Amino acid sequence: xxxxxxxxxxxxxxxxxxxxxxxLRRGAVPPAERTASGxxxxxxxxxxxxxxxxxxxxxEAVGGVxxxxxDVRSQDRPHRRVQSxxxxxxxxxxxxxxxxxLALDRDLAGSTTPMTVARxxxxxLVVSPAALST
Length: 134
What we know:
Elements: E1 8-12, H1 31-34, E2 48-55, E3 66-71, E4 80-83, E5 89-94, E6 97-104, E7 108-109, E8 115-117, E9 120-126, E10 128-129
Parallel strand pairs: 2-9
Antiparallel strand pairs: 1-9, 2-5, 3-4, 3-6, 6-8, 7-10
């Protein structure tokens, strides 16, 4: 069995707002934020937007994967979880800090290196089949 690999492509975005055809109604909560534990965070100066996509090593979208955002600098902050949609996309509204993003799935594994989240961050989380313990 091959070892698990996680490749992370990261690009910082300075603009926090983007428009897309068929976007959300004003005040609507994106699907990924509706599945997050706890109420969705409000947009403010002390919240950073993280958008991401879960993919296979071949670049195909992987939906239905729970993504965990773990703040590596603060044990006091709770970890946040969302689920990727059918297109593999997910979104977090997080306090600025340093985070690791992990795929929590029975059959798939993947994680990022620690990333600084300041205003906006775009993350690609590549997942591979989880190694079975023997």
